[in-house]
Specification:
heterodimer; A: mainly beta; 7-stranded mixed β-sheet; 4-stranded antiparallel β-sheet; 0% helix; globular; B: mainly beta
Chain lengths: 124, 110
Amino acid sequence: QVQLQQWGAGLLKPSETLSLTCAVYGGSFSGYYWSWIRQPPGKGLEWIGNINHSGGTNYNPSLESRVTISVDTSKNQFSLKLRSVTAADTAVYYCAREGWGGTPGYYYYYMDVWGKGTTVTVSS
Amino acid sequence: QTVVTQEPSLTVSPGGTVTLTCASSTGAVTSGYYPNWFQQKPGQAPRALIYSTSNKHSWTPARFSGSLLGGKAALTLSGVQPEDEAEYYCLLYYDGGQRVFGGGTKLTVL
């Protein structure tokens, strides 16, 4: 059974860099996309971006200038860095697994396994 | 910027049926947006329910179903249980590898 374990600094000052890591246990690392999602207090989910095992990435255009997602296949881990944080970046950050499959004419995409979340607070 | 819209809140009686919808600012939602649905309870991570419009995960209760309805993705709960009270989010896939979550629907069972 695949599990995602995430960690990182929970309290940052404005202008610092947020850094989180997510480790994948109990399943294959290749053949999937690995995503980061965040949720500000009392608000909805926001997709930040994802990466595959080869290092191919997709980013939310609203965050792309400040975000880097990287992968370490030797450790089955992927990481998020968000630069120049402000109070607006205060949120619970989740990592998640994305899969896909199918045949020509019918494809499917899913986001099925999630980490427990890491609370990140940005405050001076 | 693409916006995905859901009903902010809905109320349903126990044992009743309710349909939540998910609309895209780009136009009609089709199967090519691969709609996913998630349930989130307070203090918990989201839990996947439906993927690619109507496919259930192995853990998804039978009372949950997904479809396309009037140009929107839809999640229907039939025979609602008290434990279904939660926030529900849809996720749509767009060209260029983009994913966008809806704003969420708070479902109250009353």
